[in-house]
Amino acid sequence: MTRHRPRLLVLRALGLGDLLTAVPALRALRRAHPGHTLVLAAPARLAEAAAATGAVDHLLPAQAPGRAVPATLNWTGPPPDLAVDLHGNGPPSHLLLHALGPRRLYAYAHPGTPRLPGPSWREDEHERARWCRLLRWYGIPADPGDLRIPPPETPSPAPGAVVVHPGADAPARRWPPGHFATVARALHRAGHRVVLTAGAGEGPLAHRIAAEAGLPASAVLGGTTDLPFPRLAALVAHARAVIVGDTGLAHLATALDTPSVILFGPVAPRLWGPPDSPRHHVLWHPGPDDTARPGDAHGPVPDPRLLRVTPQEVLTAVGRLPAPHPAAEPVS
């Protein structure tokens, strides 16, 4: 008779950046439960990224609009031995997992689910640290610094290029296209190879910036659909630098330790930014009384703090970045 391995279900049905900030927690769970099959409930498009973490065995497709909790999970077979809520903090995600009948459920405490124990939620806490603290409360050692992923074996489509990513999920985190064009044009004229990456539907934006910067249409990668994750990861891993807003590609540059300049607006870098390192330069201009979340990260217009960042600041920051790892140098 075949004996099935116990299953550990993690709910993190969000985007690429959210997945990458959860890597330390996923790795901690993997180490703590080496005999379990670790299943990640996340959007199907993240399957290759989840595999790249080295912690996930299977992806259970699950998503909802925005940052909402999925209505259901298509779970089959025996209940999970352990379910872990890395999606958020509240009854919708707690109850979604509880309905599967797990033997154990790890989550932050919430008044709406008083029978579920857990640590107290903190608003002013970095996302990587938040989920590691949750696991430590349950006795699982977790290191927020354990966030690196290995570069893929896929060759880069533009080795040694400066990668510019102008898109973001919400206008509040999109730097003006004209600013991106100014930066791309200056880098191009200085002798750098510049490519622009575009997610699904972002092609017109990227092509407009490329044209204004004097770059050929071939400088735009993606746009009609997302770049396949192995190709995107190879591009970033072998880049000279990445220029990006507070979005998933910024977290990918951090995970691959590629030099980056990251532009922040409605949310403070201390909540979503990279570790303190000369390889990652953060630009953020809060007001004197701004909190960690001074604006709406999903707002309909660019955040004023983001608009205070100038093209010259970005160019200066790129010039101060250290050299990439040898693997990022152009292939002759």
TrEMBL record:
Q: List the Pfam families hit by this protein, alphabetically.
A: Glyco_transf_9
Among its keywords, does the record have Glycosyltransferase? Answer: yes
The biased composition feature labelled Basic and acidic residues covers: 287-296
Superkingdom as given in the UniProt entry: Bacteria
What InterPro entries does the entry give?
Glyco_trans_9, LPS_LOS_Heptosyltrfase
Provide the residue span(s) of the region labelled Disordered: 281-307
Q: Does the keyword Transferase apply?
A: yes
Alphabetized, the UniProt keywords read:
Glycosyltransferase, Transferase
Which CDD domains does the entry link to? GT9_LPS_heptosyltransferase
Protein name as it appears in the record: Glycosyltransferase family 9 protein
Q: What is the lineage of its organism?
A: Bacteria, Bacillati, Actinomycetota, Actinomycetes, Kitasatosporales
